[in-house]
Amino acid sequence: MTRETPDQTALAARPDPGSELVALFDALPAHVALLDDHGIILGVNEAWRRFANANLLANEAFCVGGNYIEICESAHGDCADEARRAAAGIRSVLRREVDLFTLDYPCHSPSERRWFQLNVTRAEGATGVRAVVTHFNVTDRKLAEEDQRQRANTLQAELLHVARLSDMGLLASELAHEINQPLSAIMNYLELTRFGLRDCPSLEASPTLGLIDKIEGQVARASGIVRGLRAFIERREPERRTVSLRAVIGESMSWIADFSTHLNLRINLSLGENEIPENIDRIQIQQVLENLVRNAVEAMVGSPDREITVKLEADDPARARVSISDMGPGIDPAVAGSLFNPFTTTKEQGMGIGLSICKSIIESHEGEIGFQANSPRGTTFFFTVPVVARD
Ligand SMILES: Nc1ncnc2c1ncn2[C@@H]1O[C@H](COP(=O)(O)OP(=O)(O)O)[C@@H](O)[C@H]1O
Ligand SMILES: [Mg+2]
After folding, report:
1. Residue 158 has pLDDT above 80, yes or no
2. Mutation pick for ligand 1 pocket among 290, 301, 308, 355 (CB with most ligand atoms within 8 Å)
């Protein structure tokens, strides 16, 4: 029996370098094959074998001894072009024209979408020139790229949309400017009419003078809306003042109340007893109220029961909440998710910008706007605005 030195023991325990190399290749997640200078497969690793078996490619062309270049050149079907490019790439590496050839290609199976990257490099040894062919699964990267492309497309669509909005803004600004002129003229004619009627005693008790007051009030409001619209387009901050929201709601609803008989509409106001001072832009909040009320009225056109309830409540000590409920058919589920986006409408003549303007106004007041379905039918739109803190 010979005593071995510690060094000899260590040497004997080391695995055969050949099998260690094989184990290394077999441990690689990429599919690797070694080709000779004609494209004949000299060896493949475990991942290559597994992939070939799983994808029914276990014919001789994909196993040791098969000619990989030839099978690529004779491929047909969806991937024929890529296969031919791969063959040409392998040839150019073997001819030493390039050191590395890379190709991304789709390889979808019936159950999943997959992409691979082919890499071909050269190995030169005593036995001649060899090509090392590697396939990596790059599906995650490809899906991420596709996702990014889709996002870029969405962003582009949004930018186009913003451009369209800004065109509309310009149009509205010009319109606002033009509308101001006839409004001033109407005011002047009303003044003249009032002046002309001054000496008609028979008119004292007639409703005509009251109607002129109302017309004047509406023209003043229209001027205010036009001013507000221009301020809104020019992105000026809202002109916030401490105002009674009860009074603002009262004013807005008196206009609709004048037409309620004609519209066969019942109006319930529940404005509470307590005066709550709010920090709001009066004209803008009137615009919101009127948009919501108009939508409610329009929603009930086909309903036999037409009733609107407007409620003012203290949401919490810092905010007041206004809600407008109707008895219409409810929100069409097709538009429920995009109701506050511009140009969302289900009406033949609708512009679809009323709710988007409401949202901008309420958000510029640091409030919230939303809606909920009523039981058994109808919808409630609500918004909140900040309350002025009382000392
Ligand atoms: N009270 C409501 N009941 C049912 N649907 C409503 C109501 N308010 C708004 N909607 C829906 O929201 C859409 C967008 O409203 P809006 O932005 O004011 O634009 P428009 O009134 O021009 O259609 C309407 O077309 C309608 O489908
Ligand atoms: Mg509307």
Report:
1. no
2. 355
Is the CB of 296 inside a 6 Å radius of any atom of ligand 1? Answer: yes
- 85, 100 in Cβ contact below 8 A? no
Structural domain includes residue 2: no
Q: Are residues 123 and 184 in the same domain?
A: no
Q: Is residue 12 part of a domain?
A: no
Residue 88: the pLDDT is 96
Cα 344 to Cα 261: distance, rounded to the nearest angstrom: 30
Residues 133 and 150 in one domain: no
pLDDT in tens, 273-325: 777 788 898 888 988 998 899 899 999 988 888 999 999 998 788 899 999 99
* Residue to substitute in 309, 345, 369, 381 for testing ligand 1 pocket (most ligand atoms within 8 angstroms of CB): 345
Q: How far is the CA of 149 from the centre of ligand 1 (A)?
A: 33
CA 287 to chain CA centroid, Å, is: 26
Domain range for 39 is: 19-137
268 and 212, same domain (yes or no): no
Determine, yes or no, domain membership for 97. yes
Closest residue (by CA) to atom 1 of ligand 1?
A: 296
Stated pTM of the model: 0.52
The predicted-structure confidence for 345-360, as pLDDT tens digits, reads as follows 999 877 788 898 899 8
For residues 126 and 124, give the distance between their C-alpha atoms in angstroms, rounded to a whole number: 7
